[in-house]
């Protein structure tokens, strides 16, 4: 059996304690949404051309698969580690280290059932000659600054655009023009934005202003990453009051070796359910990175950690104000 499917099926059979589902809609009131998009944080698979994970780091964590009910589930992550052969992993980033990973580590993405990776981040040039991840893993798709991704689903066309605002300042005029261009070709727009300050628990006032502009432009989901810690999520209403955007400023780490603090070890996946071109349900899956016998792997956090993750995301307020 395909490893990614195996872990997805295991997750579907877990008890309620394994996956936290928070939704305004009473269970069973609506049919299975035709489209589910699961958003994760940063994945770092290597450093200096050496792999971080030698086994399967996913544990029993992977987003639930909705295809059995005739829908689609897409799992999106930010891949901080470009892929290359060992001889090509020689360049050093501006930070004084590089996250170039051996090409064979791409199999880890497949193990977790990842469908789409964003490579628009400040480490995309850490390998001398990077390999496209989707060429290393069958069935994997890619979104980069130069290459938006279009997902055809039962609920219409979803456009995903990716921007790196860490290596260079965010050009909002250019971004808003690209959003308008994609809206003419799609029914929903997701913006993958690499931005913010590392290890900061809140977005800056500039980020909030930029997020407001994206909401005004009609973006449906803002998916942020780079800080490596969770930041509050919220709905942002456009100035005309006719549109609300789901803003996920940062989802923290997903798979990395950054276990130095509580905040860098604990994160979450957020599942966004679409029906009729609108977000009609939300859920989140709390995560913790554990090290056991020298191996890093994901696990379900304890009850206290789940509470802290929920509070850090502002989940109660977010779910209660679901449009």
Briefly characterize the structure.
With 323 residues, this protein is of the alpha/beta class.
Explain what the structure shows.
The chain is α/β, with parallel strands linked by helices and 323 residues long. The protein has one domain: Purple Acid Phosphatase, chain A, domain 2 (4-Layer Sandwich), CATH 3.60.21. It is 20% helix and 31% strand. It has eight helices and 18 strands. It has helices at residues 3-12, 106-111, 133-136, 172-183, 205-216, 262-265, 303-313, 315-320; strands at 35-43, 46-47, 50-51, 72-79, 83-84, 101-102, 116-118, 141-143, 149-153, 156-164, 188-194, 221-225, 233-237, 244-248, 253-255, 266-275, 278-292, 295-299. The strands form four sheets. Strands 1, 4, 7, 8, 15, 16, 17 and 18 form an eight-stranded mixed sheet that branches. A hairpin with a 6-residue loop joins β13 (233-237) and β14. The protein is globular and about 55 Å long. It starts with a helix and ends with a helix.
